[in-house]
Amino acid sequence: MNSYKLNNGVTISEIGFGTWQLTENVEQVIHWALNAGYTHIDTAAAYKNEKEIAEAIKTSGKKRSDLFLTTKIWASERGYEKAKNAIETSLANLETDVIDLMLIHWPAKTSQENWEEENAQTWKALEEYYVQGKIRAIGVSNFMVHHLEALLKTVKVKPMVNQIEYHPGYLQEDVVAFCKEHDILVEAWSPIGSGRILEDQLLNDLAKKYNTNVGAICIQFCLQNGILPLPKSTSQKNIENNIQINFQLDDEDMVLIKNMPQIGWSGLNPDEVPF
């Protein structure tokens, strides 16, 4: 699989395997993903499956050193001391000495009086573990432009990644442009819109044109925009299909997708979420 190089030189596979809402049959699903060729597994403390993923890796026959593990600090654990405790907990849950990539899962809402300081203190904890070598790369998730601008005022180590909702019908172009300008890799959670865009007529027409499926169209759209998709599935067939993509979207079809009206948005605005 091809890879991206983060701004600190660490390489990361161009497609990752998402595990949000993966709470049943975890070991089998992870085995399917690893056997299909995924080497990057994306989890989070809030997904409550870190321990199960660690066990699945142990029983998979794959070397930990050949895999790339991402996890995240949940909203309730923001702040310097709480973030350090969260990092230690994830290290223990994942049964690893080093986390490959760790993100702040959600920014503090700007309606909160001390939001900038809370994000900055959480980042300070990540920086410490990064300098110690216990985390290979650090980043954020769901940060909009104003969150990034505020954070960049205080960082010693620039974020390497911003993981956001991104899929046809919801592109967050201002965030993507800002990240590219600052050499921050954008990762796409819900790159297929969590199934909410599977019935879209344009995407289905394109799937027929390229003799593929809507999921593959969405994933390839991300890749051609320089964005790392994190598709999730519990179907062995879909898990395999999502990584076995061998076509390029024509320029005119890329434009058609970019001009789609907003559809499939989760409704999760980082400044309005209840956590």
Summarize the structure.
This protein is α/β, with parallel strands linked by helices. 38% of the residues lie in helices and 16% in strands. The protein is globular and about 55 Å long.
Outline the structure in words.
An 8-stranded parallel sheet has the order 3-4-5-6-7-8-9-10. The N and C termini lie far apart (36 Å). By secondary structure, it is of the alpha/beta class. The radius of gyration is 18 Å and the shape is globular. The protein contains 10 helices and 10 strands.
> What's the N-to-C terminus distance?
36 Å
Kindly state the percentage of residues in helix. 25-40%
Whole-angstrom Rg: 18 Å
- Oligomer class: single chain
> Strand share of the residues?
15-25%
| Low-confidence runs | none
Features of the shown structure:
38% helix; 10 strands; 275 residues; alpha/beta; 8-stranded parallel sheet
Write the layout of secondary structure elements.
Layout: E1 3-5, E2 11-13, E3 17-18, H1 26-36, E4 40-42, H2 50-60, E5 68-73, H3 80-93, E6 99-104, H4 115-132, E7 135-141, H5 145-152, E8 161-165, H6 173-181, E9 185-189, H7 201-209, H8 214-224, E10 228-230, H9 236-241, H10 251-258
Parallel strand pairs: 3-4, 4-5, 5-6, 6-7, 7-8, 8-9, 9-10
Antiparallel strand pairs: 1-2
